[in-house]
Each structure stands twice: as C-alpha cells, then as structure tokens.
Design a protein that fits this description.
Layout (H helix, E strand, L loop, with lengths): L6 H4 L2 H12 L11 H6 L6 H13 L6 H8 L6 H5 L6 H15 L4 H13 L3 H14 L3 H6 L4 H9 L21 E5 L4 H5 L2 H12 L2 E4 L9 H4 L4 H22 L3 E4 L2 H7 L2 H4 L7 H10 E3 H7 L11 E4 L3 H6 L5 H8 L3 E3 L14 H4 L1 H16 L5 E4 L2 H8 L6 E3 H8 L11
Parallel strand pairs: 1-2, 1-3, 3-4, 5-6, 5-7, 7-8
Helix pairs in contact: 2-7, 4-7, 13-25
The structure holds iron/sulfur cluster (2 copies).
One iron/sulfur cluster binds next to α3, α4 and α6.
Length: 430
C-alpha cells in the first residue's frame, strides 16, 4: 500500500512504525474471510482491510478521530485472526494499538461511554475493587433487563449478566519448600481478574508444577499486566502496570534465577510477551522489558518442556476452545490439545475454531450485541461436538462461554492437574 506521510510526521516513532505496517498491506482482502466482525456485520469498514484504510486516512491527514472511525475501531475485537490469515505479514496488532491510543487522545466520547470506560479502568485491574463490584453485581442482577432498554446503559446490563452467580471459593495453596523442588524455578503471574473470578486455575497450576518438581516464586507487588486498559487505548495506565511488574520480577530474577514467567490467562500472556515492544522507546525500561518478554511463556509452553508421561485413555470428551490470544496472538495451537491427549482425554475441535467467542477483554461489556452474536455462534459449534467438558486457556473465554451453556468449562490446566494426580475440578462434580 502506498503512503504519503511527510518527514515531519515520520519523525514520530509511532507514526513511523504504523507507516511501515501500512506499506505491507497489499489490499488482497484475504483477512476479511476470517474476521469475526466482517463475518457478522458484512460491512467492509468492519473488516481488517477497511479498518486499515480508516487508520491510514486518519494518521496521514493528522486528523483527530471522528465518530465513524471510532465506531469501526471500537468494533474490532483485537482477536488477531487477521494476522494469522494475512499472507503479507501485516502487523495489525500494533497498528490497531496505535489507532486506539490516537482515539483516546483526540476523541471525546459521549458521556455514558466515558463513564463506563473509566469505571472499567478503575475497577477491573484491582482485585479488591473487582471483588466488591462482583458482589454488588450479584445483588443488582435483576436490574439488567431494565438497563438493557436504554442503549447507552446496555454495557452495564452486560456487566450484570456476565457476573458469576456465586463468589468463587479460594482454595488452599500448599506449596512445598523450594529445596524439595529442583526441576526449575518460575514466576507464576497472579494477575487481577482471573484470581477473583476463578482462583482454582492458579491453584491447579501450583499443584501441577510442584508435583513435577518446579519451584514457584511469589514476588510481592505484581498486579494487572495492563492488557485490559491497553486495549482501551489507555496507554499510560498500561505502561505503568507493565513497569511495576517489570520492577517486581526483575528483583526476583536478579535475586534467585528464574527459568520462565508463566501465565495462565492467554490474554495477559500476549500483552506480557509484548512488553518489549510497548516499552521499546523507554530508555530506562526497554532492555528489562525485552528480557521479561523473552521469559514469558504460556503455561502450556512450559508444561511441554516437562515431557509429561502419556496416561491411559479416560472416558471423557473435551471440546477444546482455542482462545484468540493463544492461537492468533501467541501462535500456540496444537500444544494444549497435545497435552490433553497425552493425559488421556479425547479432544474435539469445534467448527470455526478461528472465530472469537466475543469475550475479548472488555469487548463483551462495551459491544454487548456483537459479542452475544459471536457467543451464540461459538457455543453452537462447541455443543455440536457433544463434549463432556469444554477446556480453554483464557479466563475471558471461560466466563463468556460459561454464561451461555450448561456444559462445564474449565481451564486446560485444571484437567491436566486432575489427570496427573490432583483433585477433580469442582465444576465437573456439579
Ligand atoms: S483483530 Fe479480529 S475483529 Fe479486529 S480486524 Fe482483525 S480479525 Fe477483525
Ligand atoms: S490479508 Fe493482509 S495484505 Fe491482505 S488486505 Fe488483509 S491485511 Fe492487507
């Protein structure tokens, strides 16, 4: 694609990077076929190619974002199916990240939208606030139908719908002393929303890792990875979260030696693997951020290095839902299924596995209609495989899919923990 940025514009490193990305696009349109919003809405402006044109036009003309651009960029899930499909290697992720920051800096959203986004950014990344908000949502749930009738308040109704009906029980974590664990030493990201919504995931991870001799460092002070606010264009808040985590983890790395930073929520993993890029222009953090990104691994990547023994077949069919952040963001596709099969499960692939379930961070709150359409499509495809249980590697997908099916859904690592000697996941008992 030809571009016509001026030298002055290109002196801004963010614009210079976007220009390079834009120039790779050859307009072929292959990406439209796998884009969930184009497939759902059928509008070229809701396809990757259409959005690329909108972003190019906005940046080239130094224009503030307008309503049309914001509408179509907001509808993008950042699922990155387009990057998997694109034959030309267009780095759509960093282009849309830049566009979201530009929108945040140049566009004044309607009041209700501003308030809801501020509320999400002030609550979701902070576990104590998020726990309080979920307790409130359980009480306020009957108001959801009323809120849905007023369009600007529909996101609040979506929030109430998505809130789990019961508070998650916090399981005990018995971690053996480091001296008993010699196979490796890792940091396990605790995160923000996941331990509030489902603390059983990291508890299963700790059990599984320690059973195989891996020590887990628990550095104090880490928190949200920044993904949720990063996808809302709130770059300074996202970078502050990233710097805080980098400081905490670097202290641990320097003190004790760490083989990997493990992440059980693939949405967070994609962002932490991108810290090196996000902070590349920060002279104080660029090197440290690149080191952290190089150490970051999805839990399934690390488990694969442990060469877990093959177990006899068990009578349980698992539909594996491949989270977009895992399959498109991190290009991890076969590994989780291979681990499940090695552990004895029968694994089935739902049709249209490349399409997003509609969760996508805060998307299911901010774009409830498109999100609900994608969720229906996803659940129909999953249920068609007639599984006993659904497995996925991202808390957003787990929450989204659970809200629309009676089939139990658990994190991949919970099934692996069970297979290798841990307790049966609670959701399979009910
Ligand atoms: S990130 Fe997903 S929703 Fe956005 S343009 Fe690409 S394929 Fe479409
Ligand atoms: S597939 Fe890639 S090169 Fe083709 S239109 Fe989409 S982004 Fe551009």
């Amino acid at each position: 694609m030809q571009t016509s940025f001026t030298p002055a514009q290109l002196s801004d490193p963010h614009v210079a990077e976007s220009e390079k990305i834009l120039r790779r696009c050859v307009h072929c349109g292959f990406c439209t076929a796998t884009c969930p919003t184009y497939v759902t809405l059928g509008n070229e402006l809701d396809s990757p190619r259409g959005r690329i044109y909108l972003i190019k036009d906005m940046l080239e003309n130094d224009r503030p974002a307008d309503r049309e651009v914001v509408t179509h960029i907001d509808r993008c899930l950042s699922c990155l199916a387009c990057t998997t499909t694109c034959p030309s290697g267009v780095d759509y992720m960093h282009l849309i990240d830049h566009a979201r920051v530009h929108i945040e800096q140049t566009y004044r959203r309607p009041l209700a939208d501003r308030l809801i986004r501020s509320l999400l950014a002030a609550v979701l990344p902070y576990p104590a606030r998020f726990r309080a908000a979920l307790a409130l949502a359980r009480v306020a749930r009957p108001l959801a139908p009323l809120l849905r009738r007023a369009a600007p308040l529909a996101p609040l109704a979506a929030m109430l719908d998505l809130a789990p009906r019961h508070a998650a029980k916090r399981p005990e974590r018995a971690v053996p002393p480091d001296s008993a664990l010699t196979r490796g030493r890792v940091i396990l990201l605790e995160g923000c929303a996941q331990p509030t919504l489902d603390p059983g995931i990291n508890a299963a991870t700790v059990r599984l890792l320690t059973r195989f001799g891996v020590a887990i460092a628990t550095p104090k002070g880490e928190g949200c990875c920044g993904a949720l606010v990063h996808h809302m264009g709130r770059e300074q808040q996202a970078l502050a979260f990233a710097r805080r985590n980098i400081d905490v983890w670097m202290r641990e790395i320097d003190a004790g030696g760490i083989d990997a930073i493990l992440i059980t929520a693939s949405g967070c993993g994609t962002t932490i693997k991108d810290y090196g890029h996000m902070l590349r222009l920060d002279p104080l953090y660029a090197e440290k951020a690149a080191k952290i990104s190089a150490l970051a691994q999805d839990i399934t990547e690390y488990l694969a290095t442990l060469h877990l023994e093959a177990l006899p077949k068990r009578d349980l069919v698992v539909a594996y839902h491949s989270a977009c952040s895992l399959q498109h963001g991190q290009k991890i596709t076969a590994l989780p299924k291979l681990l499940l099969k090695t552990a004895g499960f029968t694994v089935r692939d739902p049709a249209e596995g490349h399409l997003c379930c509609g969760s996508a961070g805060t998307y299911n709150i901010l774009q409830p209609d498109i999100s609900a359409t994608l969720r229906r499509r996803k659940v129909k495809n999953i249920e068609a495989t007639k599984p006993d249980v659904i497995a996925a590697g991202n808390i957003g997908c787990l929450t989204q899919i659970a809200s629309a099916t009676a089939i139990p859904i658990v994190h991949t690592v919970e099934l692996l923990d069970w297979a290798y000697g841990g307790p049966k996941p609670l959701k399979l008992n009910s």
